[in-house]
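Data availability (excerpt). The following record was deposited with the supplementary files.
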Amino acid sequence: MDTIEQDSLLEEIGKRKWFHRIEIAPGVITPGTEDTPRKAKLLQLPEDLSGKRVLDVGAYDGFFSFEAERRGASFVLAYDHLRPEQTGFATAKKLLHSKVEHRFGSVYDLSPAEIGEFDIVLFLGVIYHLRHPLLALQRLHSVCRGDMYLESHVTQRGFEIDGNLHTSPEIEELLQKIPLAVFFPGGELNNDPTNWWSPTRLCLEQMIRSHGFEPSVIAEWDSRIAFRCQKTSEPLPFYVWDQ
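Predicted structure:
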């Protein structure tokens, strides 16, 4: 890459704020605040996705969508509640000459009739932002025909109260045994008012399992956990008014 071409890429990248770190060209990486390449390694996504249909729910700037394409996926759909021009997605797609498709919509509206079915569903860093996480899992089950990779914030060591961690050996032991989720009505979690929940590991496992997936832990770091969830059965029935 010559200097003029690199300067042009840097100029395009510099026009917006980034969350993901995406390698646009050798040595040219978007200045995202999240170390997405490290997360990709922790998630142990298959290196070869040849012939796979991949759905990336909550794609945002699109790191994992473009990574799935790079690994050979036959079709990748980036799905987000923000339009591609509101994030770095549109810019990254243009600079990467990518064929990844983008769909604007709500996770609660996912259905096979609308978007088809997918071999791999990515649901990374989303569930704790949702007012209705169980409904989201039901919708994801309907469009997944293989594995779902789910990553979330979790409550493991104690309770965050007024910015301080309240813990003890007894609390930590109870959190391993009780399937509960801490509710944050404001910005108590990371000063972000869109963070609603922080389930315990056991709670999250049981939420996933009750919706027709068998979860296996693939990574734990900081206050995060990631599961590979194999679709195994139908979800437990909902009441009629929840359908």
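Summary of structural features: The chain has one domain: 3-242.
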